[in-house]
Amino acid sequence: xxxxxxxxxxxxxxxxxxxxxxxxxxxxxxxxxxxxxxxxxxxxxxxxxxxxxxxxxxxxxxxxxxxxxxxxxxxxxxxxxxxxxxxxxxxxxxxxxxxxxxxxxxxxxxxxxxxxxxxxxxxxxxxxxxxxxxxxxxxxxxxxxxxxxxxxxxxxxxxxxxxxxxxxxxxxxxxxxxxxxxxxxxxxxxxxxxxxxxxxxxxxxxxxxxxxxxxxxxxxxxxxxxxxxxxxxxxxxxxxxxxxxxxxxxxxxxxxxxxxxxxxxxxxxxxxxxxxxxxxxxxxxxxxxxxxxxxxxxxxxxxxxxxxxxxxxxxxxxxxxxxxxxxxxxxxxxxxxxxxxxxxxxxxxxxxxxxxxxxxxxxxxxxxxxxxxxxxxxxxxxxxxxxxxxxxxxxxxxxxxxxxxxxxxxxxxxxxxxxxxxxxxxxxxxxxxxxxxxxxxxxxxxxxxxxxxxxxxxxxxxxxxxxxxxxxxxxxx
Length: 477
Prior knowledge:
One of its GO terms (biological process) is regulation of signal transduction. The protein is of the alpha+beta class.
């Protein structure tokens, strides 16, 4: 990012790379890096993830990234890391997200070993609300783990990294071997071994159970070596048993066993079962969703809640981390035979291409995204302003407290294109208003609170967005 200045308008609807200044680097992965950036026109900090297009093509994940971007464009939730801008240049794809300064749960586990029960309980509730929001939109995350749960400066949890997320229609099953193996549900492993036809949203709740167990005990419920085969891991889950300390409350043990049931029919697999369990009977989920529950742990603002070696490596390699690389891969041709992604990372089909490469298709079909502009166009008012509302999420106990339609109206258009005889969809943001109409149904909880079901809740917390840390976490499929 460096010292180049821009005389362009500060309007966020015209955001481009020149509008940002790099503050520091905070993460890296196989395809790019993440840095804290400052938008000079808006006078606001964000997290920017920038991925090298050549590396994406070499790893055959260009269309994975497009899928991730399309999913993120449709999301806005208090416990999800939200996307604000996307754009590209000759060498990079840029994603500008919420900035969370609290670090990820993997970092904090490495510092203290395990968390208190109260701390874990709130994280689990916040992630359950995030999963419910996704599943109501037919989105499966498939990579829920401590590395992908980030804390804001107030201590609330946010789900990130949608690189393996996918959409599945009602009644359909996913079939690809996707995720991080220690957190994969047994039905994903069984599908990979040909023992099942597929899996559904229930797999995300298993991952949440593994995370909760690990946060409480400092280790996962099933320990196995990285060299263990998929069959060995599945056998361990099916035939093994989960040990729990005697001092743990019985309702907690039952709750964990519900999340970690190898039977999808018996598993706690939706928000209703999760919230009505005896272990959660004193939790007001309306208050959790509205962020009115005070976290047991608040990250220190006087320290960097991530690995500082990321920034050191960046300083050693480049004085201007983005601009210094601008010409390095310019128009570099891929020398090996490209492949096509069939579903997710780790599953590709080699083929000779007579048509354009993935990056060439990307350059022709990519449409920059701007959340402010999308909301403004959906509103039809022609003016873009960031919300300054610092109030909590409206209570879900009343069906009249719905967010404005403009905050829910980010849709997509799809354009077919062909590569080597295979057809793909151009997943880009639409400029047309959405016809999405949220449902108003709620479900009753034992403590007489009502939980939001099938309805989007969208808020902008400037106080929380002004201090966040977004951390990249690459996944081995």
